[in-house]
Amino acid sequence: GASASSGPVKALTRRCNQLLAKLVRAGPEGVPELQGRKLYQGHPMLAVYPGDGARYGRHYDSTEGGKGANGRVLTLIAYLNPFWRKEHGGCLRLLNQLADDDSTAQDVEPLHGRIVAFLCKDRNPHEVLPCLADRAAVTVWYYDGDRL
Collapsing DSSP states into helix, strand and coil, what is residue 45? Predict the structure, then answer.
């Protein structure tokens, strides 16, 4: 199996870092909340959800205070599911607020090669909907260097 130090995972994190470089630029391509920050890449996390209905409940990846105050600023998720079909479920559901009903949610299918990026400190709560086929992803978090 692949580990965080394997060649393919290193190549993926290089691609994530290239995307990050575009996101922190000033101008129309850049994300204002990321500009001027010293961001540090965390260790990639490999996750496989078995296709037996496995899911992950609603949560924030980082919060300003409390036990979720981990310094994360940005979440990047790369999906590794070459034969994924809509009926397999397992979408990433993004919400505006934790208490939102599902009518305001944005569902993102975990299609092979897709990379999803979102700001994660006290925003973009999300969940993984039940998976009806094995679902694989690599998550890379970027941390605020001033908080470490």
Answer: strand
